[in-house]
Amino acid sequence: MPKHPVWVDDMIGRDAMMGCDALKLRFVLPILGALALLPSNAQAQGAGLGAAGELVDPDILRVCADPSNMPFTDKSGEGFENRLAELVAAKTGRKSVAYTWFPLVTGFVRNTLAANRCDVIMGYAQGDELVQNTNAYYRSSYVLVHPKGNGMEGVETIEDPKLTGKKIGVVESTPPTANMAANKLLRTAKIYPLAVDTRLTPSMGEVMIKDMLAGKIDAAVIWGPMAGYYAKELGADLTIVPLVKEKTGSRMSYRITMGVRPSDQEWKRTLNRVIRENQAEINRILLDYNVPLIDEHDNPITQ
Q: How far apart are CA 210 and CA 252, in angstroms?
């Protein structure tokens, strides 16, 4: 299941902050699919490989990841989280990166991080209760994507009357569906499935961009990292507008962190230091993948 924000009640926890990113009331998070609850003994692990009481490998960066979830992770190592893992390994003195591959479906956390098979999930919505979050290392939002010159120039919110009657693509159960419903846009929308196995089916972000280029939909509302990546990959001349000016409805922007076990306090501090000292390099990696980055004031980050 791709990394889309979904209703918190359907997925997991509540946003403490950007949460999700979720800031405020975080009733939604961009997280990675329906994940199973941590086992109760995950909070009280015994002596580990790293700091006292922590089961963190000191020599190898052990990453929990989906094997086919571009632009985030991929077994070929082409995702931006793969590149971030290489950066973290180098900055923490690890000799290599090793992956525990598991699809982002129910049971992901239980079968990877909580089972001590790996030590970090490279991209996780802030505020979720299944893992302990590091500090956020990027913030992005859902975006409106449309071909240039199709009459939607200047549209910055889902409330804009210019969207009335348009066939807009959106993934089911993601935050924008509520805003679209409130503005009666679902009547003409094309709804794409949230629960897809990307080992067998293309990412819905890719499918929506291709449908738009083929004239099957007029526009799409997509999680920013997916939209930016596939627009670039497909060489499409599209307008991408971060939805940061919504006045009502669901929040569209989210903070993304790394996820670790609740017991791994020293490991979290180490990762927070890596993020703090290497934010500029992290931004460059994300921008290489055309991820729409925004700061805490909703201004675009371009370098």
A: 23
pLDDT in tens, 44-87: 333 335 555 688 999 999 999 999 999 999 999 999 999 999 99
What is the bridge-based pairing of β-strands 28-29 and 60-65?
unpaired
Distance CA 286, CA 303 (A): 10
Selection from 161, 151, 212 nearest residue 184 by Cα: 161
pTM to 2 decimals?
0.83
Q: Is 267 exposed, middle or buried (CB count within 10 Å of its CB: 0-12, 13-18, 19+)?
A: buried
pLDDT digits (tens, 9 = 90+) for 173-212: 999 999 999 999 999 999 999 888 787 888 899 999 999 9
CB 234 within 8 A of CB 210: yes
Type of residue at 263 = S
Amino acid at 197: D
Q: Is 91 helix (H, G, I), strand (E, B) or coil?
A: helix
Cβ(196)–Cβ(2) below 8 Å: yes
The amino acid sitting at 41 is N
